[in-house]
Structure prediction request, 581 residues.
Amino acid sequence: MAKVVLHPVGTSVDEAADPHDYRSNLDRMHDLNRQLDERREEVRRGWGPKYVERVHAKEKMTTWERIEALKDPGSKIFPIGTFVNWGLEFGDDAKRTSPAAGVITAFVRVEGRYAVVIANDNTVASGSWWPRTPEKIERAQEVALRLKVPVVYLVDCSGLFLPEQSHTFPGKTGAGHIFKMNSLLSAEHVPQIAGVFGDCIAGGGYMPIISDKVYMTEQAYMVIAGAALVKGGKSQHITSLTIGGPDVHVHVSNCADERVPDDMALLLKIRREMSTLPTSAVGYYRFGADPVEPRFSVGEIDGLLPVNHRVVYDIRQVIARIVDSSLFGEVLGHTGAEMVTGIARIGGLFVGIIANNQELEPHPRVKGATRPGGLLYREGIAKISTFSRACNDDGIPILWLQDISGFDIGPEAEKEGLLGYGSNLIYTNSTNAVPMITVLLRKASGAGYYAMTGLPYDPVVQLSTPITRQAVMEGRTLAIGTFNAKLDDNFQIMTKDPEERAKIEAGMKAVEDRITGDMDPYRAARQMDTDEIVATHELRDYLSAVVEMCYQSIGYRRVKNPRIWSVHDLNVLTDFLVTQE
Prediction:
């Protein structure tokens, strides 16, 4: 029977790394993970205890309390967009922050199925929409649309944060685009369930309406304009609850389906609705396998992945700590050694893996020479283009493990036509229909970041780590390029004038420091250049959730059974070529 054989991969930490290096990396990564946990907690607190008390005083739950109550017992919540607007302040007089842009978006298991939950944070300006709030909501809706995963809206929104309306209202991805995404989800038969818990003003009022099911608590109201605006415009003394509460929208306008007494009752209604949806297809697509933990602890990645981006490591050791049973079926291993491609299972489900190999490898055409890893050469580009197309044809989701410095450069690269090979790869990944997931382990540099399905090439999710660096080039390289006219062939400053030398040194350092600051993963997350920052020891859990979401729904893409994969043909051809050699 045709099949891809999965082989054990990886070794124990003692064999995989120098003990001193492992401990050093582990200690540094622990510090970065501690910082990550502290910053997550700061975001989760919203505007702090005072505003939590305000919510509780109204006999309402905070948004995080609602999500915790909604999820299946014992399951994990997988947020995305945690650090959107991180560190930014808004307003000229009273400076305000908007933790997580005032909205929580997360993958949450409800009644055995994953849902994309979009929930206004009612401890941040009563769930207002800030700059980037619409884009964050739309990104979560996009994931749901791509994977046909149900969307649950937990609405408690007082509309736009008006002092910043010029950054939120207009534009292609402004607040109005949320409602287009509502419509597209509906048109594609993606279930949408909305719970309205309190304020639901203007855009907040439109967001739940296109949902298949809309529930309201007795404290909730949905209005085009709040009572204050109506009073000012029409001199009518009324309350928002009077003009848009459940009395109106459940019994008169039919804009909502059912009223419930309180938050918990509404969450139970949502859970009941989720239970009526078709059963997840995940068990079917496991083809008889059960999820199995790797043979090596995923926590060991914290010590195996060097914090110093210039230090090499064995990517197969990382793969061994992510995939089920540490089993990996490498494909096309005879060529393009700077790239690793193969099939594995995560959570019992098949994924194709494409990863950068950092180690020195023999040059394929120059006897006795070697080439550094972490770059794209002709053979590697052709290899991953072919493998990517095969996975797309077979319906296998692709996991990209990026740690890339870019494309090879120089006379050899140009003569070999890397521009053309790169265009082939970009075309392949631009037209793939299969879900693709990208993890930026360390470096995500230059056009290599694009070619390996960086965010501009529409992976369903892109994850970063605390040591990820996204940039066209490193700060030192860019500083050399900026001051190139003042440097010799060895990139040393040419002038002998001490004053001019000091000025050039200061200028180069300023450029390097600025670029290094720009590469901070929190800055990337703040401006939505990545979806989420996760600790390396969390990668398997996050990936298990996303891979499961890729297989949860049926009928929207082809998933071949493993007996008829085109990947088999690659294996046969590889065996033939190796035999001929």
